[in-house]
Design a protein that fits this description.
This protein is mainly alpha-helical. The chain folds into three domains: 79 residues, no CATH class; 76 residues, no CATH class; 143 residues, no CATH class. 39% of the residues lie in helices and 2% in strands. A hairpin with an 8-residue loop joins strand 1 and strand 2. The termini are far apart.
Length: 412
């Protein structure tokens, strides 16, 4: 055998042993058996039956627990629990995904609101309470999703606003959705959601579904909605333009019992506002004004103001004066209360009694014109008592700067 053939044989034999474990002459297995190539594969790691907390099904009860506990004061999204439960049950929200420590983060559902009003609101109520509120603040539902779901859930039958979700969403897409949450007027989605909330809490769907409709029913509308009918189209209910006039001056003190006093008040309020005899002896105003000056004369003297009444016996700081007449008081008060309406002269500054601003101290001003001498010989004006001051100088909560200007309600 040549050297070349020997080398070829050895190479072939080596390859056979290395790759296949070639049989020897007896025919037995010359390599390891393959019955077990390593550990069994019955459990390659921990079981996958639970990948984390399963969460809890969302309920209105749990949601309102969170909202009332974590969203309070300036961050409150409901006035009380009853309102929360009424809106949660009436706005048509689905439960959504189970609530866990990490979500659900979004979606127009109870679950999303429960999550955001829970631990997240406890840590950052300014951010998360609006998300957990009825509007969802574009996190737990878009404004239109919230609006349409609530409208279809609450406004049904004769009060129905839309045929289906698609129709509502198409209409909602034309509305402004940038207004503040909780606005009660103005042509916006937020205004309509507010009135749907009132419908849910009061049950008055006839009124508030109309406000939440496409037209806004004169409430959720843009700008001012002025009536244009002639005065004859209206029905007069009563006259009460000047505060406390019917209560204090319209034949009250001179009547012998409460039943008669109330009867005279009703008679006064039913008089036409253009009746010329509102300040007269027969109506009792002069007698009541005389009695008022008598009992307050020493108090007026004590604070250093000059009464418009004429006294036969002047008051002192400790004794009441004897009133001779209140002619000057009637002369200056008469133009203010006859007729008993609030006038507005737009050519002059609007301030009570020329119209009124919300901060105007109307009682102090009314008392000033009925009690003080406002002639040029004195330094008194209609604001003298308001400026003393006898009463608080302003509301305990600042008025809003936008219509309807009402301050936020106190937290119960």
């Amino acid at each position: 055998m040549t050297n070349m053939n020997q080398r070829t044989l050895f190479v072939a034999l080596g390859a056979c042993l290395a790759l296949y474990g070639c049989d020897d002459s007896s025919g037995t297995d010359a390599g390891p058996t393959m019955t077990d190539a390593g550990p069994t594969m019955t459990d390659a790691g921990p079981t996958m039956t639970d990948a984390g907390p399963a969460g809890t099904a969302a309920t209105c009860a749990d949601y309102c627990d969170n909202a009332m506990a974590n969203c309070t004061g300036a961050n409150a999204v409901y006035v009380n629990r009853a309102e929360c439960e009424a809106i949660c049950g009436g706005f048509g929200w689905e439960a959504g995904d189970p609530v866990t420590v990490s979500g659900p983060l979004n979606g127009n559902t109870i679950g999303c609101r429960t999550y955001h009003s829970g631990a997240p609101a406890g840590e950052d109520p300014v951010l998360h309470c609006p998300h957990g509120g009825p509007t969802g603040a574009d996190m737990c539902g878009s404004p239109c999703e919230t609006y349409c779901t609530a409208a279809l859930s609450l406004c049904t039958g004769d009060d129905a606003l839309y045929g289906d979700m698609a129709e509502c969403m198409t209409t909602c897409g034309t509305l402004d959705d940038t207004a503040d949450i909780g606005v009660v007027s103005g042509d916006s989605v937020q205004c309509r959601i507010y009135h749907l909330g009132v419908a849910a809490t009061t049950g008055d769907t006839a009124m508030h579904c109309a406000h939440a409709g496409e037209s806004g029913a004169g409430v959720c509308v843009g700008g001012w909605d002025f009536r244009t009918e002639a005065p004859t189209a209206y029905t007069r209910v009563d006259q009460a333009g000047m505060p406390a006039l019917s209560t204090v001056l319209a034949a009250t003190y001179t009547q012998p019992d409460e039943t008669m006093r109330n009867a005279v008040k009703d008679l006064y309020n039913d008089m036409a506002p253009d009746t010329a005899g509102l300040v007269s002896v027969t109506d009792g105003v002069a007698e009541n004004l005389t009695a008022l000056h008598t009992v307050l004369s020493d108090d007026l003297f004590g604070v250093g103001v000059t009464s418009c009444a004429a006294y036969s016996t002047a008051p002192t700081a400790t004794t009441q004066g004897v009133v001779m007449n209140v002619d000057q008081c009637l002369a200056q008060a008469g133009p203010l209360v006859i007729p008993d309406v609030i006038r507005v002269d737009r050519a002059s500054t609007v301030s009570f009694p020329n119209g009124r601003d919300l901060p105007d101290q109307v009682i102090d001003i009314t008392l000033a014109v009925a009690l003080l001498d406002l002639r040029a010989a004195t330094t008194h004006t209609a604001r003298t008592l308001a400026d003393l001051p006898l009463n608080p100088t302003e509301n305990d909560v600042a008025f809003a700067t936008d219509f309807p200007y009402l301050a936020a309600p106190h937290t119960p």
